[in-house]
């Protein structure tokens, strides 16, 4: 991700001390602006050690690009290197890197192709290429690297392990480079593919963990006021679909379903023809309206699984908002232009397929909808990284996600730092064999998943949505609320400008208000009905009472801060009777009444 950071062209910082007094090159002078504390620290550590390889892991939005270009300017100024080569994941990012470098006086050619040989133009200080370019002609890129003392900047270096051929090509192309600077916001992979030029440290259990030379995580960036806090708006609902055998299935998102049922329910929720995604998009658009009260140009991004879904989501949003939606379907020059156009505009929504999420750099994005079936930690971190860029103090990001266990865990662990862990294997040869086997298995699973998706989308029957909870800083707030209800609107109506402590305070207030409303409603519904109702089966009555009790215990836990188990123990002590599973309807109702009175007070 490319940073648009004023530090590239503002005067005065200690990093300028490393430039010769009479050094005329604007590539160094233009990047001698004010740095953030972590950027100064990282540059200081680098210059102290002067390593050939240096891996920096910094959360999206922290300013990795500014750091890299400043360091490049210093190394060019003291003649450590004379040529800069940047390797980026996508064509779109090539242009962004070149533009960012140009603002500081470093001229990189983003249109260099493999057909150009080793010539890229005398007026340039280097080139920007993609990992795919290198994989096609690694020897040519090695010759280009060896013609001068070269600094290679590997942006989002974890992509270097995307395929065996890519890793081999990168090692071939840049094995002889004088300096290599690796950047990543996600220093881990979901497989055992090794990342080129990254050191792996052996662990007691025989595995190996990637070693980061300098790390700057989301938690520290949040404390420093460098990134936005993220509120996850979680939505659940009832899903219905038909199996290939003709059997009708139904399940609720967020309940204890099997892995297969969860996957099928999740895909049903994302079906553009269903009500779930339509209601979530409507809620997200309402949230965007609230944010734009404080941030008039705030934008929203929907991350879709595939092209057809993305197009359908765009149509839904255009019908809701009455304005065009930027649709990004591939990594080409046309998409790059549309991203830039949207970034500079004040329109509301952009929809992109998941393949370009890492290349989307739009600082005004403040609301997101995670409408993809991908649940790997790597992709989730990259996707959330689109929304954390801070432009002014107090900005808050809101991301809408389905209540799926894997996503809920990732949302709760947003601040957690992870390293790339390689399982224990023997020789390097065995490592490559293991990697090849893992990749082959991953490809088989992906094909199977695609086949299931293609068949399954045709069989989705219906879906519905409701607000389930908000997740912030690892904690959960609120509970079940119908779409467009007062309870849902309480959470969607949070101001767009808030300090982190204010976010927690307001969420607690919304939660307490919702708990009281629920208690009042339950009391009203409890009055004797005007006409007799047919008696319900005992097992159904017991099940409903247990569910209601557990719901109220959850609400009371959020208000009081007491664990669920402690509340259940106290209820048994006061009201008597056995554990919930063995309690009668009357015993359960006594506990429910006690909790209602407490919540009402």
From the structure above, extract its key features.
eleven-stranded mixed β-sheet, 601 residues, Rossmann fold, disordered N terminus
Secondary-structure blueprint:
Layout: H1 26-29, H2 37-49, E1 53-58, H3 64-77, E2 83-88, H4 91-103, E3 108-109, E4 126-130, H5 131-136, H6 138-146, E5 150-154, H7 164-174, E6 179-184, E7 200-202, E8 208-210, E9 214-216, H8 218-223, E10 230-242, E11 248-253, H9 259-270, H10 275-292, E12 299-304, H11 307-321, E13 326-328, H12 333-344, E14 349-353, E15 365-371, H13 377-384, E16 397-402, H14 405-412, E17 421-422, H15 428-459, E18 460-463, E19 466-472, E20 475-477, E21 481-482, H16 486-492, H17 500-525, H18 538-560, H19 564-575, H20 585-600
Parallel strand pairs: 1-6, 1-9, 2-4, 2-5, 3-4, 5-6, 10-16, 12-14, 12-15, 13-14, 15-16
Antiparallel strand pairs: 7-8, 8-17, 10-11, 10-18, 10-19, 19-20, 19-21
Helix pairs in contact: 2-3, 6-7, 10-11, 17-18, 17-20, 18-20
């Amino acid at each position: 991700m490319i940073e648009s950071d004023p530090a590239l062209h503002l005067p005065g910082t200690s990093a300028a001390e490393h430039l010769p007094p009479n050094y005329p090159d604007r590539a160094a002078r233009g990047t001698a602006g004010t740095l953030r504390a972590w950027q100064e620290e990282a540059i200081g550590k680098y210059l102290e050690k002067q390593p050939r390889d240096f891996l920096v892991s910094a959360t999206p939005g922290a300013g990795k690009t500014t750091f890299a270009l400043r360091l490049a300017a210093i190394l060019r100024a003291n003649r450590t290197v004379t040529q800069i080569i940047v390797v980026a994941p996508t064509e779109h990012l090539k242009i962004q890197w070149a533009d960012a470098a140009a603002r500081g006086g470093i001229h990189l050619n983003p249109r260099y192709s493999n057909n150009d040989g080793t010539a890229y133009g005398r007026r340039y200080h280097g080139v920007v290429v993609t990992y795919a370019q290198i994989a096609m002609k690694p020897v040519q890129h090695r010759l280009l690297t060896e013609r001068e003392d070269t600094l290679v900047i590997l942006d989002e270096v974890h992509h270097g392990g995307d395929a065996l051929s890519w890793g081999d090509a990168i090692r071939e192309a840049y094995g002889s480079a004088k300096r290599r600077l690796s950047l990543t916001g996600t220093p881990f992979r979901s497989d055992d593919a090794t990342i080129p030029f990254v050191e792996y440290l052996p662990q007691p259990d025989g595995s190996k963990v990637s070693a980061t030379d300098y790390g700057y995580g989301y938690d520290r960036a949040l404390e420093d006021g460098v990134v936005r806090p993220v509120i996850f708006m979680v939505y659940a609902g009832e899903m219905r679909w038909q199996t290939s055998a003709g059997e009708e299935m139904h399940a609720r998102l967020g309940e204890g379903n099997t892995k297969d049922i969860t996957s099928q329910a999740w895909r049903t929720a994302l079906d553009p023809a269903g009500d779930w995604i339509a209601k979530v998009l409507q809620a997200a658009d309402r949230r965007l309206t609230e944010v734009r009260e404080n941030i008039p140009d705030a934008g929203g991004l929907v991350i879709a699984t595939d092209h057809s879904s993305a197009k359908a989501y765009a149509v839904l949003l255009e019908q809701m908002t009455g304005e065009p939606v930027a649709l990004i379907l591939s990594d080409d020059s046309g998409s790059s232009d549309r991203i830039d156009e949207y970034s500079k505009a004040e329109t509301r929504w952009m929809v992109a397929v998941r393949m370009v999420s890492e290349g989307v750099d739009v600082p005004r994005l403040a609301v997101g909808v995670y409408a993809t079936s991908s649940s790997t930690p790597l992709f989730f971190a990259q996707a959330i990284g689109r929304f954390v860029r801070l432009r002014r103090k107090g900005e808050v990001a809101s991301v809408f996600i389905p209540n799926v266990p894997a996503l809920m865990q990732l949302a709760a662990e947003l601040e957690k730092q992870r390293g790339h862990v390689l399982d224990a294997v023997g020789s390097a040869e065995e490592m490559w064999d293991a990697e090849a086997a893992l990749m082959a298995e991953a490809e088989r699973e992906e094909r199977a998943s695609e086949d299931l998706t293609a068949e399954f989308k045709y069989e989705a029957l219906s879906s519905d949505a409701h607000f389930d909870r908000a997740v912030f800083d690892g904690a959960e707030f609120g509970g079940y609320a119908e779409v467009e209800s007062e309870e849902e609107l309480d959470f969607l109506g949070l101001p767009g400008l808030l300090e982190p402590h204010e976010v927690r305070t307001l969420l607690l207030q919304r939660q307490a208000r919702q708990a009281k409303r629920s208690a009042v409603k339950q009391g009203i519904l409890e009055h004797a009905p005007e006409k007799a109702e047919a008696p319900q089966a005992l097992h159904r009555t017991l099940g409903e009472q247990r569910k209601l009790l557990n719901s109220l215990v959850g609400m009371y836990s959020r208000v009081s801060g007491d664990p669920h188990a402690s509340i259940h123990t106290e209820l048994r002590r006061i009201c008597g009777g056995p554990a919930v599973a063995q309690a009668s309807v009357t015993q359960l109702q006594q506990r429910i009444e006690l909790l209602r009175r407490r919540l009402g007070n």
